[in-house]
Amino acid sequence: MPSKPDKYGIKIWALCDAKNGYCMNFEVYTGRAPEADAERNQGTRVVLELTEHVPGGYNITTDNFFTSIDLARKLKERNNPMTLLGTIRRNKPQIPEKFLEVKNRELFSSLFGFSEGMMMTSYIPKPRKTVLVLSSSHYSHIISDEAHKFKPEIILDYNRTKGGVDMLDKVVKIYRVFRKSNRWTFALFLHYIDVILYNAYILWTLKNPDWEVTTKDKRRNFILEVGKALVLPFIRERDKSHLQTSIIQSIKMVLEENTIEASGPTEELSQANEDKAGDSPSMGRCYICGRNKDRKSRAKCDFCKKFVCPMHKHRSVANACDNCFIHENV
Q1: What predicted TM-score, i.e. pTM, was given to this entire model?
Q2: At what angle do helices 69-77 and 42-50 cross, to 10 degrees?
Q3: 308, 269, 329: which is closest to 321 by C-alpha?
């Protein structure tokens, strides 16, 4: 879709809260069925399906792909009645010709039409351009003089409530679990996780408004806490006897000190180091000097079991390298 920021990908219809972007429902667009005719009134069908289980009394704001007089009428006649507000395309047959004229109209002028509990507005924001808005929740031609552009109230309400889906797309891209994959099912699953995490964050902050009020990246902290809560039970139950040293060290960083058993990663780390030392060569390059200086040594640090040259062996403790002397507090 050339007009979209993300021109390629999987298309998803979404129903989101206008204030915070909370995703209430969504539907994956799977395209036209094989050997089927082109679908007519697709926008109407999508909105009716997404709002089928939503309690009545809400207003649905849509863009011009979905908005139609038929949709507004069907939303009001359902068992869970709702109102509709949205821009409407110029090619709809129900629009009066006078609403489409732009030549003889003044800048910032408005026309209003009322019929069957619905209201349509034609507004001129720029020379030779008109904006058409349909609403089943507005019944008055109130005009605001904000910034001296004399916008009707119906357009101001549309601008305030139109950004729910865009907000969800924006916030989901900030913190993502997405990984590149050629499997579209896996990519879709990861997108579900992103949306679920954001919905959980919205619910948590609504229930706990005082949580990390002064923190700027509290959503990131929330995602980290959720991740830890999901993996900690598996980390505690995992067999660590055959893990690499680096993995055991990472486990130690994730687990709090009071959650590590006395016979846990500390003893396993020592055992892993001993196994590693038994298979290692008798001489190696100093890991602190690196490859550029290429200093070989037979001495090893008793803590990290890595080769270390005399320059980086701590003087007061002969069997400890400088890094381990600092971190192990020997």
Answers
A1: 0.71
A2: 30
A3: 308
Residues 6+ apart with CB under 8 A from 212: 218, 221
- Sequence spans of domains, the chain: 12-164, 175-237, 242-275, 280-330
Q: Which two tokens stand for residue 27?
A: 């539907």
Question: Residue 31: what residue type?
Answer: G
Per-residue pLDDT tens over the stretch 164-207? 999 999 999 999 988 888 899 999 999 999 999 999 999 999 99
Considering only the C-alpha atoms of the chain, give the largest distance between any 2 of them, rounded to a whole number of Å: 93
pLDDT tens per residue, range 110-119:
999 999 899 9
